[in-house]
Every structure is written in structure tokens, then in C-alpha cells.
């Protein structure tokens, strides 16, 4: 299994050019972060004839996230796109402060003992020159796979899924499986009538 399910593939077919569908799609994409299996989720919003993601985000997005535990930060903005990192502060702080992560992140200017907003500023600055490799850690990708992708690891490429896996695939596939399960669970709730906002506020708990 490649673990590539997206919000659009999991949701019932309906008119995509509506704010209601936009938030259904958004919640499914963010489900792994909402349920704590992924420190952060990175999404890029653009507009197309089929789906006005950028328009809906700019008009409704910030209000939608009020009173929720999920925070967000714009890491890159162009005329036609917006790249946003959605994260749970406690989870992301925990990721930044893991011993092996700290040593790796210090090379790029991050300071795990500083307030989270300072490290977010570091990320934004680095993102202006393109998506930095270390963001993989913030998205829940194991360090061995980040290092492997950068050409700094000692493990060989073993398989591919949501990302390239190096060395023992078992721990990486387990992470992918959890991401997939969260998205599937959130989509099933929405397809049965739950509102995106209720899932964001964790009115429905994922126990498995």
C-alpha cells in the first residue's frame, strides 16, 4: 500500500466550488495533525476552475480556526499561491526538542530551547529560498528518511510511499499507516454528516 489517499479521493463527490466542500477537504488533509499523529501539515493553496482553494482560504480560513488547538503560519506567499504550515504547538515543540532532532536542526539555525514562534520565523526565512529539507521532520517524517533524501544518511533507498524511505521500512510505513487511518476516519465522519468544524474542535475522538 502506498498511502497516498487525499481528501478529494476519500470524500463523497459533490460540488467542489463551495466553502463547505473546501473545509471538508481541509479537515481530511489536516486530520493526522488534529489527532496528534503528525506534528504539522503543509498545504499550498491555489485557485483552479475546479477548486478555488486560495480564494476560500483567504476569505474564510482564519475565522474557521478560531478557538481550535491548531495554529497556522504562512511560510511562503506568491501572487497566485499561499503555502501554510498547520501545526499543534505542543506536538511541534516536542518534535523540535527530541534529542536527535535538536542536533540536526541546530545546523540550520533552529534553537529548540527558544519559543516556538522564533523557530517558526527561522523556517519562514529558510522557506524563501525553496522548501527546506528539514521541514520533513516537522511533518512527521523519520529523521533517517530526511537524512537519506539529503544524501547524508548511511541507509539505501528501500521503498517509496508518501516519501522516500531509507533503511528499515517498518517504522516509516507505520507512520504512513497512521496518517492514512486519520484521514480515512475524518472522511468517514464527514461522509456520515459530521461538520468539519466539529472535527477540528475534536468533538469526535479517534481512539484507534
List keywords for this structure.
three-stranded antiparallel beta sheet; alpha+beta; 48% helix
How is this structure best described in words?
By secondary structure, the protein is an alpha+beta fold. It has one domain (7-199). It is built from ten helices and five strands, in the order ααβαββαααααββαα. The strands form two sheets. Strands 1-3-2 form a three-stranded antiparallel beta sheet, sandwiched between helices. It has a two-stranded antiparallel sheet with strand order 4-5. The longest helix has 22 residues, at 170-191. It is globular. The two termini are 19 Å apart.
Write the layout of secondary structure elements.
Blueprint: H1 7-10, H2 19-34, E1 40-46, H3 53-64, E2 71-77, E3 81-87, H4 89-96, H5 99-106, H6 116-127, H7 135-138, H8 143-150, E4 157-160, E5 164-166, H9 170-191, H10 196-200
Antiparallel strand pairs: 1-3, 2-3, 4-5
Q: Output mean pLDDT.
A: 89
User: pLDDT below 50 for ≥5 consecutive residues: which ranges?
Assistant: none
Helicity, as a percent range: 40-55%
Q: Output the strand order for the largest sheet.
A: 1-3-2
Quick structural overview:
48% of the residues lie in helices and 13% in strands. It is α+β, with helices and mostly antiparallel strands and 208 residues long. The mean pLDDT is 89.
Amino acid at each position: 500500500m502506498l498511502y497516498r489517499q487525499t481528501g478529494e479521493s476519500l470524500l463523497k463527490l459533490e460540488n467542489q466550488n463551495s466553502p463547505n466542500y473546501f473545509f471538508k477537504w481541509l479537515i481530511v488533509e489536516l486530520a493526522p495533525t488534529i489527532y496528534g499523529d503528525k506534528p504539522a501539515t503543509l498545504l499550498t493553496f491555489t485557485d483552479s476552475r475546479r477548486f478555488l482553494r486560495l480564494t476560500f482560504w483567504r476569505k474564510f480560513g482564519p475565522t474557521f480556526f478560531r478557538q481550535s488547538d491548531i495554529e497556522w503560519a504562512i511560510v511562503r506567499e506568491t501572487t497566485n499561491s499561499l503555502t501554510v504550515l498547520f501545526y499543534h504547538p505542543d506536538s511541534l515543540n516536542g518534535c523540535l526538542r527530541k534529542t536527535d532532532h535538536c542536533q540536526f536542526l541546530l545546523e540550520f539555525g533552529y534553537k529548540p530551547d527558544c519559543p516556538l514562534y522564533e523557530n517558526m520565523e527561522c523556517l519562514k526565512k529558510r522557506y524563501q529560498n525553496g522548501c527546506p529539507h528539514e521541514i520533513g521532520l516537522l511533518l512527521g517524517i523519520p529523521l533517517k528518511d530526511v537524512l537519506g533524501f539529503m544524501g547524508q544518511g548511511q541507509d539505501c533507498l528501500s521503498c517509496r510511499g508518501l516519501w522516500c524511505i531509507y533503511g528499515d521500512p517498518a517504522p516509516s510505513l507505520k507512520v504512513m499507516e497512521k496518517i492514512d487511518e486519520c484521514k480515512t476516519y475524518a472522511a468517514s465522519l464527514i461522509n456520515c454528516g459530521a461538520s468539519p468544524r466539529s472535527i477540528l474542535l475534536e468533538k469526535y475522538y479517534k481512539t484507534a
